[in-house]
Amino acid sequence: MAYESRLGSTAEVASFIGGIGLTGKIRSMSESATTKMSSKGQVVIPEPIRKRLGLEPGVEFVVLGEGDTIVLKPISVPSMREFDEIIASARKAARRAGMKRSDVAAAIEAVRSR
């Protein structure tokens, strides 16, 4: 690809994406385009990419940066299934750490009383 020397190899980008936990969540990075950053730090996502990803005005992103690579990940509300998986994982980690409900309640009270 003509841009590969400027953007880094596909393997480098894939390694970065895997390192930040997005492996398996990105369908394909076969479509690429160039854009410029304005003096205000604004970047326009090209229309074909916005359309393909279903990005609407006002969508919020998490911005991840490492070395010379930037990843914009749309923030989305998890589905109920994903939410249940997140809760189950958190409960499992809490049990492994020996936490009790009373520990969680105490931590919440401590933060609220600040």
Summed up:
The chain contains five helices and two strands; from the N terminus they run H-H-H-E-E-H-H. By secondary structure, the protein is mainly α.
What do these coordinates show?
By secondary structure, the protein is mainly α. The protein has two domains: 4-74, Pemi-like Protein 1, Chain: D, CATH 2.10.260; 80-112. It is 44% helix and 11% strand. The protein has five helices and two strands; from the N terminus they run αααββαα. The chain has helices at residues 4-7, 10-19, 47-53, 80-96, 101-112, and strands at residues 61-66, 69-74. Strands 1-2 form a two-stranded antiparallel ribbon. Residues 1-7 have low confidence and may be disordered.
Return the CATH topology of the largest domain: Pemi-like Protein 1, Chain: D
Radius of gyration: 20 Å
Beta strand %: 5-15%
Categorize the overall geometry. elongated
How many beta strands in the DSSP annotation?
2
Topology:
Elements: H1 4-7, H2 10-19, H3 47-53, E1 61-66, E2 69-74, H4 80-96, H5 101-112
Antiparallel strand pairs: 1-2
Offer a few descriptive terms.
114 residues; mainly alpha; Pemi-like Protein 1, Chain: D; 2 domains; two-stranded antiparallel sheet; 2 strands
